[in-house]
Amino acid sequence: MASNTAAWITSPKAHPFEVKPAPTWTPGENEVLLENHALAINPIDETVQTRAWFPLNYPTILGQDVAGVVSAIGPNVTRFKIGDRVVGHGLVFATTRPQHAAFQAYTVVQTNMASEIPNNVTFEQAAVIPLGCSTAACGLFQEEFLNLQLPTEPKRKDTGKTLLIWGGASSVGSNAIQLAVAAGYEVVTTASPKNFEYVKKLGASQVFDYKSPTVGEDLLAVFKGKTSAGALDCIGFAATPVCIDVVHKSAGVQFVATVKPVSVTPPEGLGIKHIFGTTLKDNKVGKGVYEDFLPKALKTGTFVPAPEPLVVGKGLEKVQEAVDLMGKGVSAKKLVVVL
């Protein structure tokens, strides 16, 4: 095995990352070591670097989305073998251990947070999946959130229930639409008009302009006569009160799962909870999505890696450039660095 190298953040708010040697990690029980071929950038990488709001032990390594080849397997691993192409969610923000971070040549991932990559999917495409998929799955399927039934391939028969996903073209939204449809739910979503066709292609039945002054009324009209499965708010801020209003005034599940901390008081009888996108590692949802659903769905093409990758460049030296670009905002694309 070649020696490991990482893009280190040496102290809180340090910029740029420093590319230098890192330990060669050993996978533990139910873990595999990936030799990374592609990694993706998420908003949390940029905000943690620039604002240092998340408690970490410095120096450390950031990043969660990796795709590569298994180079070592830990005890009790039977699902993967050395040489397998795998996409995984690095759990550095759950464990705070640098071996679980993405911005390096080798990353340790848990087997219940990893999926085989079929030959019809490239490493760059696969790398866009993990955190967006995990966050969506946490909000949709965990018992303390929307508690929807898990997705299957082929898709489950229709439940007759309709889910509101606010921000369908976001990374979380792009994954959530596909997961919810595979679980048997109708999806109504919001996006900017330029992304209407994109979210419909992912499986949304109807889409509304989130900037429209009548978006709340329009959504309420759609949900009239339907049974609501609740709402997944993939944006937060001004979107949250609208999601609450639509869910509260609709028949069905009275719950909003949101990607941002909750700053509003919901009406009596309505639940709202902030998603942290790694908690599925500890329950049936991790296995249900990464082991039971994704490998088959990626192979058949019923689940597509989304948003599409936008490759910033090659090598760990390009990670800082990609994180800086993330800070400027990206729409319906996910920034990727290849190694």
From TrEMBL:
Residues 10-337 form the Enoyl reductase (ER) domain. The keyword Oxidoreductase applies. Keywords: Oxidoreductase. One of its GO terms (molecular function) is oxidoreductase activity, acting on NAD(P)H. SUPFAM superfamilies: GroES-like (SSF50129), NAD(P)-binding Rossmann-fold domains (SSF51735). Pfam families: ADH_N (PF08240), ADH_zinc_N (PF00107). Belongs to the zinc-containing alcohol dehydrogenase family. This is GroES-like protein. It comes from Hyaloscypha variabilis (strain UAMH 11265 / GT02V1 / F). The lineage of its organism: Eukaryota, Fungi, Dikarya, Ascomycota, Pezizomycotina.
